[in-house]
């Protein structure tokens, strides 16, 4: 029986993880669940899964959650509050695996803490790796932790790697990664019309059920840009060896091209329970609850090269990883600020890329070899991004 801590339990990845856990309660026990503000959903999850700990990261909501559980069947559960509590539960002795599913930079410190503690890290938070890069991978190596990717694309690549492969190493026989992307909701929208895109349109992803921030990232293809950076680190590959491929059906989740001409692809219905179950059962497999793929209903599959004029955020991600240093951190921070401004209708959809590009132009690719430098760059980039938004909206 393995103990699991789910960071970001009320988000889509957290909900899917709990669905898989419920199917394999003989193998996994929920030790801790965390949420930021959705205390009603957290309460319902705790009633069902009865964790030892619940963490409400937003202290303003913690008292309301404690009041909610008073007199309930889970009244004796330990409730912690604040960002530091996320690190506490991610490093508990009773926790074997940590599902890192907090969206954005907020997930960096608890995910890094889990890596340093030698846990099996199920990585769904791409920003943690984008921001901390080699520091994160070095923590995995130093502690002997196991790092398993949860993003459908990286999980697919991992499945297509040679037997015995471990993240962070180069598979010498693999010459290229084909990183698939759905293309989002605006793949065929006239570029001139993108200025008028609304938040509601941007979050309406055609294939995947995701949170609002990630859905906007998919619409701009920044999500794929962050995944590109993540893939370089996870699989120790040069960015020029990673080709982004738009595949609107989202049936092939990614491919690995080998030196002998073989191309291995991982396929399946677009359901996050597949990569979650694969990582939780690794190196074995167990049922995920996902329906079998009906290849006859698929009928055909399309592939396109991304248009970088339509998707400038993808171009900026390539530029950031090639520049190195703090530039991926700057890219991520500026994107988070810009997406939030767009979702709150302060800037236009097309302004997201403008904020990021202008923000990156104000930084040099300085060293990112300490957590202090990374966090400082993150803070400074957010301030710069906010200044640029103020200029755009003046």
UniProtKB/TrEMBL annotation:
Record's catalysed reaction(s): 2-C-methyl-D-erythritol 4-phosphate + NADP(+) = 1-deoxy-D-xylulose 5-phosphate + NADPH + H(+)
Keyword Isomerase belongs to the record: yes
Positions of the 1-deoxy-D-xylulose 5-phosphate reductoisomerase C-terminal domain: 147-235
Residue ranges of the TM segments: none
Single GO BP term: isopentenyl diphosphate biosynthetic process, methylerythritol 4-phosphate pathway involved in terpenoid biosynthetic process
MF-aspect GO terms: 1-deoxy-D-xylulose-5-phosphate reductoisomerase activity; isomerase activity; manganese ion binding; NADPH binding
Listed EC numbers: 1.1.1.267
Cofactor(s) this protein requires: Co(2+); Mg(2+); Mn(2+)
Keywords: Isomerase, Isoprene biosynthesis, Magnesium, Manganese, Metal-binding, NADP, Oxidoreductase
Occurrences of domain 1-deoxy-D-xylulose 5-phosphate reductoisomerase N-terminal (ranges): 4-133
Matching InterPro entries: DXP_reductoisomerase, DXP_reductoisomerase_C, DXP_reductoisomerase_N, DXPR_C, DXPR_C_sf, NAD(P)-bd_dom_sf
Residues that bind NADPH: 10-13, 38, 125, 127, 211
Residues that coordinate or bind 1-deoxy-D-xylulose 5-phosphate: 126, 152-153, 182, 205, 218, 223-224, 227
Family: Belongs to the DXR family.
Function of the molecule: Catalyzes the NADPH-dependent rearrangement and reduction of 1-deoxy-D-xylulose-5-phosphate (DXP) to 2-C-methyl-D-erythritol 4-phosphate (MEP).
UniProt protein name: 1-deoxy-D-xylulose 5-phosphate reductoisomerase
Native source organism of the sequence: Methylomonas koyamae
Gene for this chain: dxr
């Amino acid at each position: 029986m393995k103990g699991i801590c789910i960071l970001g339990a009320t988000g889509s990845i957290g909900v899917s993880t709990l669905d898989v856990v419920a199917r394999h309660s003989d193998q996994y026990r929920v030790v801790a669940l965390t949420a930021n503000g959705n205390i009603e959903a957290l309460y319902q999850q705790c009633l069902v899964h009865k964790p030892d700990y619940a963490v409400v990261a937003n202290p303003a909501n913690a008292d309301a959650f404690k009041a909610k559980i008073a007199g309930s069947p889970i009244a004796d559960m330990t409730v912690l509050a604040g960002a530091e509590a996320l690190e506490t539960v991610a490093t508990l002795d009773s926790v074997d695996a940590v599902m890192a599913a907090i969206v954005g930079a907020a997930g960096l410190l608890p995910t890094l803490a889990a890596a340093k503690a030698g846990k099996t890290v199920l990585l769904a938070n791409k920003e943690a790796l984008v921001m901390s890069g080699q520091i994160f991978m070095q923590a995995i190596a130093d502690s002997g932790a196991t790092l398993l990717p949860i993003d459908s694309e990286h999980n697919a690549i991992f499945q297509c790697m040679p037997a015995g492969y471990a993240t962070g190493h180069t598979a010498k026989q693999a010459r290229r990664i084909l990183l698939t992307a759905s293309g989002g909701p605006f793949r065929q929208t006239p570029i001139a019309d993108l200025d008028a895109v609304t938040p509601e349109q941007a979050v309406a992803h055609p294939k995947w059920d995701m949170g609002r921030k990630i859905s906007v990232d998919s619409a701009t293809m920044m999500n794929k840009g962050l995944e590109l950076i993540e893939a370089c680190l996870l699989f120790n590959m040069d960015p020029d060896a990673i080709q982004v491929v738009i595949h609107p059906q989202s049936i092939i989740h990614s491919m690995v091209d080998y030196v002998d001409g073989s191309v291995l692809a991982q396929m399946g219905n677009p359901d996050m329970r597949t990569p979650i179950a694969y990582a939780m059962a690794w190196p074995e497999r167990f049922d995920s609850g996902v329906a079998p793929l009906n290849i006859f209903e698929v009928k055909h599959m399309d592939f396109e090269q991304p248009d970088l004029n339509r998707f400038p955020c993808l171009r900026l991600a390539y530029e950031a990883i090639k520049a190195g240093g703090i530039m991926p951190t700057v890219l991520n921070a500026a994107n988070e600020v810009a997406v939030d401004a767009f979702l709150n209708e302060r800037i236009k959809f097309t302004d997201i890329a403008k904020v990021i590009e202008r923000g990156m132009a104000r930084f040099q690719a300085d060293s990112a070899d300490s957590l202090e430098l990374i966090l400082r760059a993150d803070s400074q980039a957010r301030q710069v991004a906010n200044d640029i938004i103020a200029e755009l909206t003046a």
